[in-house]
Amino acid sequence: MHSQLKNLLAGQSLFLVGGGKMGMALLDGWLAAGLAPSQFLVQDPKPSEALKNSGVTLNPDAQSLAAHAPDITILAIKPQFIEAVLPELSLPDGSLVVSLMAGVPLATLASMLGETLACIRTMPNTPAAIGKGMTGLYADAKVTPTQSAAAEALLQAVGQTVWLETEAAIDAVTAISGSGPAYIFHMAEAMAAAGEQLGLPQDMARQLAEQTIVGAAAMLAQTQTSSAELRQNVTSPGGTTEAALEVLMAKDDGLSQLLQRATKAAQTRAVALAQIGTDPKKN
Q1: I want to staple 128 with a disulfide (CB 3.0 to 4.6 A). Which of 72, 158, 215, 276 is the partner?
Q2: In the Cβ-directed half-sphere of 22, how many Cα atoms lie within 13 Å?
Q3: Nearest CA-CA partner of 208 in 227, 236, 188
Q4: Is 7:35 a contact under the CB 8 Å cutoff?
Q5: What is the DSSP string of 168-196?
Q6: Long-range contacts of 275-279 (CB under 8 A, 24+ apart)
Q7: Contacts of residue 114, Cβ cutoff 8 Å, sequence gap at least 6
């Protein structure tokens, strides 16, 4: 996969707009995959020491940006900053823009950056920082097969990818994998709190809860067994796990119904953010 990324992007210039947590996670993954620091221009008003020491070209002026003529621009800024940042960008006609911004439709990107650019909208998640990310991608009609392959390789350098058939599906991806890590982190909190209620010391309850989630996730990742079958393998008839699952799998108020309501709320908010558009006061 790393060799594919190097081959696809050999000789190309990449412009990363935003060097925050997600931007740095991606940049670290790309450099680890073998892309050269000299290929990158990075724009960030307050670059971290790690970014300063990465060897990339920082905060290029208009002349430098024009000279490098980036083949791919990656937008890793918060949506509320687009009115201040995007109109200032002058990008080559036909070049690729990969947006990581939640709630910013392709139509908004086209209106602010120009109709001549090819745009891909993506929704990554924070495990990209450790190379375990999950990203959904949707491309507009101007994106070429070569550009699609390049974008896919860039995001696969920090995890797995799926291509979406409609832009609206981005909102569902946001609800499941984009926001999903927070659900798991909260589950760890809830399990630890439950352990305390059962009489365990706080530190021990936290260790038991967190390592249980880590171990279960590793089993999902390393076996070809479905989550349903793994659950069944742990559940002995008449045992303790079955007793707990009778509560968690209750028909009317179990975990499945709770997650359906939670993810629907996240999807609804994602749709609302897209409708808000570019008004930073409403974000």
Answers
A1: 158
A2: 22
A3: 188
A4: no
A5: THHHHHIIIIISHHHHHHHHHHHHHHHHH
A6: 276/103, 277/108, 278/82, 278/83, 278/104, 278/108, 278/112
A7: 91, 93
How distant, in Å, are the alpha carbons of 83, 103, 113 from that of 90? 14, 23, 8
Q: Could you tell me the domains of the chain? A: 2-165 (3.40.50.720), 180-272 (1.10.3730.10)
- Location of structure tokens 């891909």: 120
List Cβ neighbours of 260 (8 Å cut-off, separation of 6 or more). none
How far apart CA 194 and CA 211 sit, in angstroms, is 15
For tokens 């724009």, the residue is 43
Which residues, 6+ apart, have CB-to-CB distance to 205 below 8 Å?
Answer: 191, 192, 193, 194, 195, 196
Do residues 47 and 29 touch, judged by C-beta distance below 8 A?
A: no
DSSP 204: H
Cα(143)–Cα(95) distance, integer angstroms = 9
Cα distances from 60 to residues 15, 29, 30, 117, in angstroms, run: 10, 22, 20, 20
> To the nearest 10°, the Cα dihedral for 118, 152, 108, 64?
-60
Q: What is the mean pLDDT of residues 3-17?
A: 89
